Amino acid sequence: MVNVGLMGLGVVGTGVAATLLRETAPLSDVTGRPVRLKKVLVRDFSRPRDIDLPSGLLTTNAEDILADPDIHILVEVIGGTDPAEGYLRQGLSAGKHVVTANKEVMAKSGPELLALARKNGVNLLFEASVGAGIPIVGCLMNELAANDIRSIRSIINGTTNYILTRMAHQGTSFEQALGEAQELGYAEADPTNDIEGIDAAYKLTILASLAYRRPFQPSDVYCEGISKLEPQDFRYAQELGYAIKSLAIANLVDGAVQLRVYPALVPAEHMLAKVDGVYNAVEVDGSLCGQVLFHGMGAGREPTTSAVVGDVIEAARKMGGHSPPLEVRNGADLTVRPIGDLKVRYYIRLDVADHPGVLARIAQILGDGEISIAAVLQKDTQPETESAEIVITTHSAREASVRKALKAMAGLSQVRRVCNTLRIEE
Ligand SMILES: NC(=O)c1ccc[n+]([C@@H]2O[C@H](COP(=O)([O-])OP(=O)(O)OC[C@H]3O[C@@H](n4cnc5c(N)ncnc54)[C@H](OP(=O)(O)O)[C@@H]3O)[C@@H](O)[C@H]2O)c1
């Protein structure tokens, strides 16, 4: 008999509890032994629940799980760092296998927790922490482990992708699209973590640590949110043959890893450009497998339950074995490349005075920075304000040079506003 202690009975916990209670026969078939939900930790007994649990299962005392030697697998779906991380540490130290959906804890303390799991001879599994129902964590650890990973390019925040899809297809403003996402329950009341790219940075930290076998921290990820995007950016991007997507990218350049989350122009025919709404996708480019694309539901009760219960099955099957450490061999000496070293193409949108010679001044500044122009579009001339919108795309250039040029452009009396600068990810 394998006994499970579940911590958290919210969106995900309810799905996990329902599956463990309902699917007892199939679970014992696939694991080779009966799996039983023994205790469920909540914060508030009186909260109405979407599930009827057998009596005696609920508790508000974490020790009922942590101190019970008869609970073999601890499933943490509380979220946040405190008290969740402490519970994970206690569970591992007590020799329990641990399954968690917690991206924040895994991004910040994953390597330490995996070392603790190893020390105690147990497994720490975290498939649901990235992409919910998309099986990317296990694939990077196992099925793709023979590859040198050249890059990971991903859309791993459903809230952001929903907002960008609305802005692209309906021409809505950012504020309007965010309001709709909140009404539909896709965005939280405080959406900062999603729209500023922090949630995606946690998930990218986990993916990159697995892919490059070296522990990264969320602070290694350069991060830009989507709140500055305006409807014009989507119109011009479409005219130029691109979609705008918030991408989380890890790639290896000359022995250093570059980690970044930002809204970028993606060619309209690329598969990532077609990932719409709350869907997620992860494209892995490996030395042996080539380009592989994972696509699916990156959030929600059922997809996340799929990943969590999958990990419970794996933990039950592996009882007696333990997780490998995160930092192994080749990854240890990989450094993080600063964002200033990034070399990509750029999209620059400027609001300028509609006077002769403006373009020549801008071209001069770009030329001084050795940034060559690929195309210039002059848009939306407004005679009453004598202003015009200019969109410039560049050939591949260094980020540091582009930033310097943008500063110089902003200082020109004819430039009223540098509206937006986006990278183009071909
Ligand atoms: N929701 C998704 O689609 C999704 C997808 C992928 C990963 N995840 C991850 O899964 C985890 C859970 O997310 P969720 O959406 O299920 O969260 P949620 O709906 O807010 O549920 C959290 C649960 O934890 C319990 N809890 C909170 N603080 C507690 C404390 N101090 N002691 C004991 N119990 C406590 C709550 O108890 P009460 O019920 O009594 O308030 C609630 O049952 C998070 O790490 C999240 O990032 C979620």
Structural notes for this entry:
This protein has 426 residues and is of the alpha/beta class. The protein has 3 domains: 2-132 and 302-330, NAD(P)-binding Rossmann-like Domain (Rossmann fold), CATH 3.40.50.720; 139-299, Dihydrodipicolinate Reductase, domain 2, CATH 3.30.360.10; 341-424, 2-Layer Sandwich (Alpha-Beta Plaits). 35% of the residues lie in helices and 27% in strands. It contains 14 helices and 18 strands. Strands 7, 8, 9, 10, 11, 12, 13, 14, 15, 16, 17 and 18 form a 12-stranded mixed beta sheet that branches. Strand 15 and strand 16 (387-394) form a beta hairpin. Helix 1 (11-22) crosses helix 12 and helix 5 (103-119) runs parallel beside helix 10 (198-212). The chain starts with a strand and ends with a strand. The model has no long low-confidence stretch (mean pLDDT 94).
Features:
alpha/beta, Dihydrodipicolinate Reductase, domain 2, elongated, 18 strands, Rossmann fold, 426 residues, 14 helices, six-stranded parallel β-sheet, Alpha-Beta Plaits, binds NADP nicotinamide-adenine-dinucleotide phosphate, twelve-stranded mixed β-sheet
**How confident is the prediction overall: mean pLDDT?**
94
Low-confidence stretches: none
Straight-line N-to-C gap: 52 Å
- Write the CATH architecture name of the largest domain: 2-Layer Sandwich
Summed up:
The chain is 35% helix and 27% strand. The chain is elongated and about 80 Å long.
Question: Layout of SSEs?
Answer:
Blueprint: E1 2-7, H1 11-22, H2 24-31, E2 35-41, E3 58-59, H3 63-66, E4 73-76, H4 84-93, E5 97-100, H5 103-119, E6 124-125, H6 137-143, E7 149-155, H7 158-170, H8 174-183, H9 192-195, H10 198-212, E8 222-223, H11 231-239, E9 242-253, E10 256-267, E11 279-286, E12 290-297, H12 301-317, E13 335-336, E14 343-353, H13 358-368, E15 373-382, E16 387-394, E17 397-398, H14 399-410, E18 415-424
Helix pairs in contact: 1-12, 4-5, 5-10, 7-8, 13-14
